[in-house]
Known about the structure:
Blueprint: H1 2-12, E1 17-21, H2 26-41, E2 48-54, H3 61-75, E3 79-83, H4 94-109, E4 114-117, H5 122-134, H6 139-142, E5 148-151, E6 154-157, H7 165-174, H8 191-206, H9 210-236, E7 247-248, H10 249-252, H11 257-270, H12 278-289, E8 298-301, E9 304-309, E10 312-316, E11 328-329, E12 337-339, E13 344-346, H13 353-361, E14 366-369, E15 376-378, E16 384-386, H14 387-394, H15 398-401, E17 406-409, E18 412-416
Parallel strand pairs: 1-2, 1-4, 2-3, 4-6
Antiparallel strand pairs: 5-6, 7-10, 8-9, 9-10, 11-14, 12-13, 14-17, 15-16, 17-18
Helix pairs in contact: 1-2, 2-7, 5-8, 5-9, 9-11
Amino acid sequence: MIQEGILSFLQAHPASKYQLAYSGGLDSHVLLHACAALQAQKPEHFQFAVIHIHHGLQASAEAWAVHAQQVCASLNLPLKIIYLNLQPVRGESLEAIARHARYQAFSSCLAANEMLLTAHHQDDQAETFLLNAMRGSGGAGLAAMPTVRSLGLAQLGRPLLAFSRAQLEAYAASYQLDYVDDPTNADTQFDRNYLRHEILPRLQTRWPAVKQTLSRVAMWQAEQQQVLEQLLSRELLGFMGSRPHTLSAQTLQTVDVFMQKALIRYWLQHLGFALPAAKKLQHILSDVLAASPDASPCVSWQACEVRRYRDDLYALKPSRPHDAKQVLVWEEWNQDLYINSLGYSLSKELLNPAIKQIASTENLPLTIRFRQGGERLQREQGYSLELKQLFQTAGIPPWERERIPLLYLGDELRLVVGVYPQA
């Protein structure tokens, strides 16, 4: 039954290549075994590869990696092991950090048109629904885990969502599968384990089909969420700002607060950011959306910042640390200049022949600096322009201004990268 279910899923969701997320536990071992059997039956249709994530969090991690190698070798499946170096972050659970790093690692291994298959099943879906309900999630959270979703350039598929843990256990027993057992799965200090071992069994004594029912509710909610997102994707076009990927504050303020929240959530989700908690969303409305056009408000959470400049709302990743007082000497004119604090290089093509000729003839250094305040740009027409005025005219948001490289010829500002002169 499980192999037939996976086959139906794969036929409904074709991909150029399928990669299996394999931890070595019961669920992923069943998925791996079933997919290997399908490949043996239909080698011309299906080719699978396997990814094992070595989190390095437990003493058994290395043994699990060895187990993955042995299993994949026995099934003649290629295996890639990815080693993570997890750094705890204050205020975030290690479980959440590991999950985020794991999916980043998966995404890095997948090309466009490929699909990662995970072994989430019906019990996981019921647990996820309850967890999200206890956290006060909205519609997207209560939709729990979709059968298929995007993952970077590729997709993530869950072919086992229709099967219970008991069905997976029966499959493993019938094929005498040798899987590893993670002892942390029994630790009820983790919320999911508490639901799994303490709450759901009690609910099941009163409502035997509770897991199937919760999974069905999540599926219905997912359908409603999909319809809502289709409607919001059309609506969002009428609320875009003057810059790419921004929203117009003025236009947003023409609709009621419920529509504002729905549009902002969809906008953030569309850009790939984690959705803000209810309080953060309220701060976006009160502190950013309602701010005066000359203010520069910011609301931040979980690797996202929402800012406003003039009429535009921006959703941004937090900037990397940057020393605006640094001075970089561009000594090798025939080479690009890398700026470590910005994470990119300036092209040698910026140095036009006229600038290099003056620098060479008058023995003047070419340097890259950053805005300190009061700078004036020397223009070819013979007059200078205040840098602040140039930034305002170009619509450069304040938080970007001290990160824009300035090319100096001696002590004279000659070029503002990406702003003046315009390409």
